[in-house]
Amino acid sequence: MESEAPAGWEFFDSVDFPTDRTDDPLGRARIRHVVTAVVVGHEGAAWLPRLTEALWALDRRPERLIAVDTGSTDETAELLAEMPAVEPVVSLSARSGFGTAVARGLEAVGFAPIPSAVGPYGDDGGLTVVEWLWLLHDDCAPAPKALEHLLFQATLAPDTGVWGPKLRLWPRDRELLEVGVTTSLGGRRDTGIENGELDQGQHDQPRQVLAVSSAGMLVRRDVWESLHGFDPRLPMFRDDIDFGWRASRAGFKVGVAPDAVVYHAQAAATGERALAGTRRHAYQLDRAHAYYTVLANAPGKLLPLLVLRFLLGTLVRSIWFLIGKTPSGAVDEWTALLGTLLAGGWTQARKDRRRLDRVPYDDIKYLFSRSVHALRHNLEETGSTISERLREAWADEPEEQVVTTARRAKSTARVAQDQPRWRRQLIRRPFLVAWVFLFLGALVAARSLIGGGVLRSNLLLPPHESLASLWHAAAAAPAGVTPPAWLGQFWALSAITFGPSGATNVILLGAIPLAALAAWVLLRAFVVDRVARAWGASAYGLAVFANGAVSQGRIGTCVAAIVLPLLGAAVHTVARRRRVVIQGSWRAAWFAGICQAILFAFTPALGLLVSVTLIAGAVLGLGWRRQARQLVFSVVLGLLLVLPWTIQLVLHPSRLGQEAGGPPTAAVGPGDSLAHLLTGTPQGAPVPWWFVVPLILVALLALTRQSRQRYELLGWFAALAGLAGTLVASRLGGGSGPLMFLMTAGWIIAITVAWDSIGKSRELILQGVLGLVLVATVVTAGFWLVRGDDGPLRRGPEQDLPAYLMSAQGPPQNASILVVRKDPESAMRFSLVRDGGPRMGSLEAAPTAEQTKPVTDVLSALGGGGTGEEGREFASLAIDYVYLPAPVDPTLMATLDSLPGLTRASADADDASWLVDRSKVEGKAPLQDDVRDLWRVLGIIAWIIALISCLPTARRTVAVPHGTHARRVS
To answer: Which residue windows are transmembrane per the record (predicted)?
Structure first.
């Protein structure tokens, strides 16, 4: 090669591991190395100038340089011809793979001849000659002493036939890509390099490995010829692992020389240029070659297990791609696996490689990546991928440029650097401190509700005993009655919270910290000041307590308090993109539809109010632009996801006032208590109504400012909408607790935005107002801790029945119990208790009056004194017990005692029960559940589609030769 380098070669300098050592320190006989370098290029005009500079800068240059061009359409051939002392360029078709190109280049030009001149070790005419093949990609650049270090290690370890350099990120980065490579038997490429790991000398020990990258690979000629080069069935991807695996099986060692550095760009894997040698998708090709490499080289006794492993892995990854809305990835998975298995190329490869089996698999087993390591890496990569894609989920469309203002700059807390790190972090994150206190406070406030039994109140029926019973209740109801939609959603939560009782505990006892966290997600979108944001989120969480939702056991309001901010964040994401080419966000619209479906199910009145407000705002405020259509779509989606419950609400508008879990909240209207109405505190709330007065006064005072933020006005709009909805709901006799909570939430948003716009004001009046707000919040929090969450909410037994009646409901008796409530001053009421009921959802799925008419007729006859046939009629209705809880009506008890077919059973002091004789009558239960399997299946499909649509799109990644650095290819 020529000795003069062109201008610009100073890209490399002396820091690239300089060395002057040329002799074996152990004093062994010196070896004369003859190197033939082969550069394969394909559409590499962007990288070849740098490679040319690197070849000029080499301290130890190869004796022959062969260049092969595989059908390039740019200036690659011309640039290859300009490399120093290069042989005439060999031209091949674009379908030629890397291994084929190297083989054709050697056939056309041949290895370098052995010169008789004096070499770098002095007079080497009588020295042992070792011929080497040095493989280079067109997008790599060896450091000046890369070849020298490779040959030096070859001198130190002459029994190693393949050497590889340390790969670092192109063009000259300290980030490590690879220092040797291995694979698991599942086909996962592994280098042991962490993502983004910098080269600090931590991997600088030469060692034996399974394989090295073909970028900079140094192969002894006899090894290359013995193995017949790279497998032509692997035009790219995994060809280096296959070659190293075959070399290890044949008894040739493979080593890595970390002092030799090569910079690599991986242009094909990163999508910077089209793939050469194949028309298949990069991901599909990578997976197919991974399967081929393992099947062609693994021990025969492991093949059945490996095929099963491939099938299971393909199934899991296919599901991942389908969830991630990338069906082409699932197609690639199955195409790669089935295509490899059925093509049969690997079977022929196994026959051809039997001659290589000089080293048993157990002797080189330690060179492979363990399956547990592969599983750990897969879990880590999956977690990081999910986290990354969720962060990008709603930010993948162009947004308005954020302008940094002085107020935003001042919002960052400045902390002295001499403070401990944990203290600095807490000062900079006030909400973290507030949320920790809320979380610990939730544990303290629930002190009297921890123990055996289940959470119950007069507004909360007991939860179901198991997931199976809850699943049945979500899809079964008497004919003509629709089971409530919220039971299915509650079942999904119960599945991850260890049962319905656990879900009830999480919703009620964790409502305050969870609502605060959801509010922080919303406020961080438009509130800059961290202290204001922390106060707003904390006050919002405490508003759940002030509303009485926790102490009264109103699950619907607690769920709404958690979902409302998330819905607001989704709507904000949709509506804020107004002056960009691509407007709105369909992912956010799908998520908003899911949130509205939850509101429709748990708090129908609040869901209706929010949906009407969104449609009005979309049409009047946004016109019929893309954002408006997305908001209307979210409302329609919410209604569709709760079908057929939506039809039930239309046919029976009175059910709009119900909340999930139990009876509707007592109505609060102008005729009852004006103070409770205006302050948004329902009757029976744990705090007096005047606790909220400071909040209202400050919110009103914020309206007097000359400059008001749009979000502040939106907060007041929400408060007024909640007030209007409360008036309408109370007039109709429905519950108004969730609507009154919306009033409080609106005031909190208004005050938070006003606080944020004021900033760190030094005016005493403003400081006094903010101090009043803080004091009121602290007092409310203290009252919450002292009072606790109990009240109407209590922890008790699942049923208010005697123990023997509760046990009689189980197998084998499966008794049906008629519970009749009547005292001298009230009308007769009854409930038919079966299978441990009544439970959550029983009120919404209660049978119609026509269906309960047989029982009503019998009880009406009893109220008139009885005819003597009531016992037989009870038996015909498949009723096993009649139970009268305290207080018992003496007249009714006497009538039941006198009826034939009824026998007084044991009971407590103040109640009574009778056993019905069913031995002579074939009874038939008056109420039979009708299971809606079709609606259940359709509902599951609809929710899966909605959840997948609001998730980010999955990416197909290629296991390129740099360990955990997966590259996006779709």
So the answer is: 431-450, 506-527, 539-568, 605-624, 631-651, 687-704, 713-733, 739-758, 765-786
Distance CA 209, CA 253 (A): 8
Mean pLDDT over the full length of the chain:
79
DSSP annotation of 132: E
φ/ψ bin of 865: left (φ > 0), alpha (ψ from -120 to 50), beta (otherwise): left
Question: pLDDT per residue over 95-106, tens digit each?
Answer: 888 999 999 999
Angle separating helix axes 486-496 and 500-509, nearest 10 degrees: 90
Query: Residue 560 has which token pair?
Result: 């709404």
**What pLDDT is recorded for position 926?**
64
The CA distance from 740 to 677, in Å, is 8
Q: Could you please report the per-residue DSSP string of 309-367? A: HHHHHHHHHHHHHHHTT-HHHHHHHHHHHHHHHHH-HHHHHHHHTGGG-SS-HHHHGGG
DSSP state of 847: P
Identify the bridge partners of residue 930 per DSSP, sorted by sequence position. Answer: 477
Q: Please give the structure tokens belonging to residue 635.
A: 């409302």
CB 361 within 8 A of CB 299: yes
**Alpha-carbon span 543 to 438, nearest angstrom:** 12
From the list 498, 495, 486, 597, the residue with the least C-alpha distance to 947 is: 597
Residue 882: helix, strand or coil by DSSP?
strand
Residue 131: what pLDDT?
93
Phi and psi for 164 in degrees, rounded to 5?
Answer: -135, 150
C-alpha to C-alpha distance for 775 and 768, rounded to whole angstroms: 10
Looking at residue 400, what DSSP letter applies?
A: P
pLDDT (tens digit per residue) in 228-262: 999 999 888 899 999 999 999 999 999 999 999 99
CA distance 36 to 615: 73
Could you write out the three-class secondary structure of 553-587?
Answer: CCHHHHHHHHHHHHHHHHHHHHHHCCCCCCCCCHH
The amino acid present at 680, given as its one-letter code, is G
- The first and second tokens of residue 274, run together, are 């089209």
Task: Give the dihedral sign, CA 742/748/750/753.
Answer: negative
pLDDT in tens, 461-499: 888 888 888 887 877 777 777 788 888 888 889 988 888
What φ, ψ does residue 900 adopt, rounded to 5°? -70, 145
Write out the H or E segment, with its range, that includes residue 178: strand 176-178
Count the Cβ atoms, other than its own, within 10 Å of residue 66. Answer: 28
Distance of alpha carbon 851 from its chain centroid, rounded? Answer: 46
815 versus 733: the higher-pLDDT residue is 815
Using CA atoms, how far residue 711 sits from 138, 523, 560, 622, in Å, is 56, 10, 21, 16
Residue 129: strand pairing partners: 32
**3-state percent breakdown (helix, strand, coil) of the chain, nearest 5:** 50, 10, 40
Could you tell me the pLDDT band of residue 970, with boundaries at 50, 70 and 90? Answer: very low
Nearest to 76 by CA among 106, 43, 108, 28: 43
- DSSP string for 623-670: TTSHHHHHHHHHHHHHHHHTTTHHHHHHH-GGGGG--TTSSPPPP--T
Classify 964 as helix, strand or coil.
Answer: coil
Phi, then psi, of 603 in degrees rounded to 5 = -135, 85
Tally Cβ neighbours within 10 Å of residue 312: 11
| Contact predicate 836/469, CB 8 Å | yes
* Residue 754 CA to its chain's centroid (Å): 34
DSSP, residue by residue, 746-811: HHHHHHHHHHHHH-S---HHHHHHHHHHHHHHHHHHHHHHHH-S-SS-EEE-S-SS-HHHHHHTST
- Residues 720, 725: Cα–Cα separation, whole Å: 8
pLDDT tens by residue, 888-920 = 777 778 888 778 888 888 766 678 888 888 777
Q: Provide the sign of the torsion angle of the four alpha carbons 354, 359, 360, 364, taken in this order.
A: negative
Longest Cα–Cα distance of the chain, Å, equals 129
Tokens of 375: 């599983």
